Amino acid sequence: MKGLFKSKPRTPVEVVRHAHELLIFIDRNQEVRENKREEKIADLYRSIRDMKSILYGNSESEPISDACVQLTQEFFRENTLRLLIICLPKLNLEARKDATQIVANLQRQQVHSRLIASDYIEKNFNLIDILVDGYNNTDMALHYGAMLRDCIRHQSVARYVMEVGHINKFFDYIQLPNFDIAADAAATFKELMTRHKSTVAEFLSKNYDWFFMEYNSKLLESTNYITRRQAVKLLGDIMLDRTNSTVMVRYVSSKDNLRILMNLLRESSKSIQMEAFHVFKLFAANQNKPGDIINILITNRSKLLRFLADFNSDKEDEQFEEDKVQVIKEIASLDAS
Fold this sequence. Notes:
Blueprint: H1 12-28, H2 34-56, H3 65-77, H4 80-87, H5 93-106, E1 110-111, E2 114-115, H6 116-122, H7 126-133, H8 141-151, H9 155-163, H10 166-173, H11 179-194, H12 197-206, H13 208-220, H14 225-239, H15 245-251, H16 255-265, H17 270-285, H18 291-299, H19 301-310, H20 318-332
Helix pairs in contact: 1-2, 1-3, 1-4, 2-5, 5-8, 7-8, 8-11, 11-14, 14-17, 16-17, 19-20
């Protein structure tokens, strides 16, 4: 008789509570008999799919905002996020992907005009420690990396990653031998350095010396072509952002930085050359060039002018042409100090 009647679907609150109980079971019960454990894990996978369906909708219906609010409130009322992150390695690949999407969605869910995910993480920053250190785990790196990028949407989280020194780890993560993990770490690093402009400007002002020493030696002078290309592109994004104008002036006043950029201009890769030019032009445009910068530009003037005369964009780009004319003019007019 039981099979004749469908059980009533769980409410969003009940779905989260059920998932929470199952996560506790998975986390704490290592020695339970195998068939019972498999039952519980299969039940957890269904609950994770149910949460994803509530937040994203499915082929038959769009998500309902009230249901999303209820789910979000319950999810952060207890430590469900913590349990999900800790138990993620014990889940199969499909459930990990679903869990990653759930965490992403919850970062954007507002309850009474507040991002309660941000409030929760601010009280549980050690979860961010787990996500950052996840890059050391080949199986988990891409899942934890995606979760971390979504958490970095919150300015307080980005500030935490910078201030406690986690950002230092990315100089090594970006050089990991696993291409996919290195690329994911580079994407997270870019998000950290570009999303919250005031936080980035403050961080760079306070940490200029060690940060750019690492950036130059490990990224711009890396033996890996992709690392160099991504690094010089990101450097241009940072330097050309008005919020970082003070840092930019300091960077383009360094002869060591100038030499690195001039070497990048000599790369065989056109894309690296083009990105390097966008930073190099800032050295040339600086109206308060230190004497050693002027001397390096004068010493290399004929080579630079010959290079720039033949240096063209692959596509029509008026701004590039204007910038090139201005750089040539600046270098040609330099007088030895």
